[in-house]
Amino acid sequence: MSNEEWLDEREQRAWRGFYTMQRHLRRRLNQRLQRHSGLSEADYAVLVALSEAPGGRLRAFQLATVTQWEKSRLHHQLGRMVDRGLVVREPCPEHPRGSVVALSEAGRDAIVSAAPLHVADVRRHFVDLLTPAQLDAVAEISETVLAVLDGAPDEGADPLPATERG
Q: How many structural domains compose the chain?
């Protein structure tokens, strides 16, 4: 492998710093979310998506798109949330083979209770640590990377030429 393919010191510092920061931040936020609300990060993601949807309802495929989850993961997560009374599954009137996921009253109560604490934690552990210019930079960086990722299909291509793979 040539040196051009390795990250240089600057690139490595940026990548490793970002990677480590987001792992630690997510772990901290998830622990506090679980401790204060009993919700997992996955529960919270589903409840937020449904609470922001018209009527608190989304087709299952729409929820998979919003959460960026595979069908299997969504199915298992929704099963756990149905068992806990946070969401309900309903038949889709327009598509007999489709389903609608709806926020239950318990789910609405859970997100209404959890959101202010979670937002305060996000503010405490992220937003308030950065200057307005840094927040703008993070937003711009995120938008740049997401625009490319959202626009390019994951082709599953191996980044190494065949001659260099083990």
A: 1
